[in-house]
């Protein structure tokens, strides 16, 4: 999953990027409102962490413009602890959740994961991917995968790829979409890497788990009724 962190405080932005990267997010950063507005309108983020007190363009204005332009990605706003009016204004402007500063990084990560799950219609962080390949369990919050009860070791990119397909389960996901959601903006993107990762996931979790739809992309089978 790819997220945008909009924060002008360099130290806090670095802490946010580190915590989210550890939770296996691809993270972009905007230090001011104008860059945030541009990135949010041109890049396909799965979620945004948005500070309201920004230089050049304030966070509420950025959020309102995103929503007016039809950008529907989940947005978690950061507010001052005592500024309850900011929370109300942010929610009315289209925010999905908020955190008051100072906050625990673990709570921010958990809230962001929950927002992304809900945006894809998932109620739990644990996703069952059962089929002829066996019983595969993916725990987004814990960052773990098991097959028939045994832990399976995945690289960070393998986990990100599997998690994104699981959130889009039953739908075809193109290589372009995967590339846009798995890598940060300045990452050297190579579609051949996706093919290699898919091959490794099949070897670890079952050859039939990830379906190749010729000329279109990849798909995880829809959940059983």
UniProtKB/TrEMBL annotation:
<keyword id="KW-0902">Two-component regulatory system</keyword>
<dbReference type="InterPro" id="IPR001867">
    <property type="entry name" value="OmpR/PhoB-type_DNA-bd"/>
</dbReference>
<dbReference type="InterPro" id="IPR039420">
    <property type="entry name" value="WalR-like"/>
</dbReference>
<dbReference type="InterPro" id="IPR011006">
    <property type="entry name" value="CheY-like_superfamily"/>
</dbReference>
<dbReference type="InterPro" id="IPR001789">
    <property type="entry name" value="Sig_transdc_resp-reg_receiver"/>
</dbReference>
<dbReference type="GO" id="GO:0032993">
    <property type="term" value="C:protein-DNA complex"/>
</dbReference>
<feature type="DNA-binding region" description="OmpR/PhoB-type">
    <location>
        <begin position="124"/>
        <end position="222"/>
    </location>
</feature>
<protein>
    <submittedName>
        <fullName>Response regulator transcription factor</fullName>
    </submittedName>
</protein>
<feature type="domain" description="OmpR/PhoB-type">
    <location>
        <begin position="124"/>
        <end position="222"/>
    </location>
</feature>
<dbReference type="Pfam" id="PF00072">
    <property type="entry name" value="Response_reg"/>
</dbReference>
<keyword id="KW-0804">Transcription</keyword>
<dbReference type="GO" id="GO:0006355">
    <property type="term" value="P:regulation of DNA-templated transcription"/>
</dbReference>
<dbReference type="GO" id="GO:0005829">
    <property type="term" value="C:cytosol"/>
</dbReference>
<keyword id="KW-0805">Transcription regulation</keyword>
<keyword id="KW-0238">DNA-binding</keyword>
<dbReference type="GO" id="GO:0000976">
    <property type="term" value="F:transcription cis-regulatory region binding"/>
</dbReference>
<dbReference type="Pfam" id="PF00486">
    <property type="entry name" value="Trans_reg_C"/>
</dbReference>
<dbReference type="InterPro" id="IPR016032">
    <property type="entry name" value="Sig_transdc_resp-reg_C-effctor"/>
</dbReference>
<dbReference type="InterPro" id="IPR036388">
    <property type="entry name" value="WH-like_DNA-bd_sf"/>
</dbReference>
<dbReference type="GO" id="GO:0000156">
    <property type="term" value="F:phosphorelay response regulator activity"/>
</dbReference>
<keyword id="KW-0597">Phosphoprotein</keyword>
<feature type="modified residue" description="4-aspartylphosphate">
    <location>
        <position position="51"/>
    </location>
</feature>
<feature type="domain" description="Response regulatory">
    <location>
        <begin position="2"/>
        <end position="116"/>
    </location>
</feature>
């Amino acid at each position: 999953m790819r997220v945008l962190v909009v924060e002008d405080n360099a130290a806090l932005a670095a802490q946010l990027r580190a915590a989210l990267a550890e939770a296996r997010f691809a993270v972009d950063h905007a230090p001011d409102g104008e860059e945030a507005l541009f990135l949010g309108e041109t890049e396909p983020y799965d979620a945004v962490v948005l500070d309201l007190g920004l230089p050049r363009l304030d966070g509420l204005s950025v959020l309102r413009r995103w929503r007016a332009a039809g950008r529907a990605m989940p947005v978690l706003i950061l507010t001052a602890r005592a500024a309850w009016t900011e929370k109300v204004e942010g929610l009315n402007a289209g925010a999905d959740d908020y955190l008051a500063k100072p906050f625990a990084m673990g709570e921010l990560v958990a809230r962001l994961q929950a927002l992304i799950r809900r945006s894809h219609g998932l109620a739990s962080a644990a996703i069952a991917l059962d089929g002829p390949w066996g019983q595969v369990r993916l725990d987004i919050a814990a960052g773990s995968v098991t097959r028939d009860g045994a832990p399976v070791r995945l690289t960070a990119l393998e986990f990100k790829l599997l998690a994104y397909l699981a959130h889009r389960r039953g739908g075809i996901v193109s290589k372009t979409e995967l590339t846009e959601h798995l890598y940060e903006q300045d990452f050297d993107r190579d579609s051949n890497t996706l093919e290699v990762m898919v091959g490794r996931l099949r070897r670890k979790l079952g050859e039939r788990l990830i379906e190749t739809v010729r000329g279109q992309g990849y798909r995880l089978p829809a959940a059983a009724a």
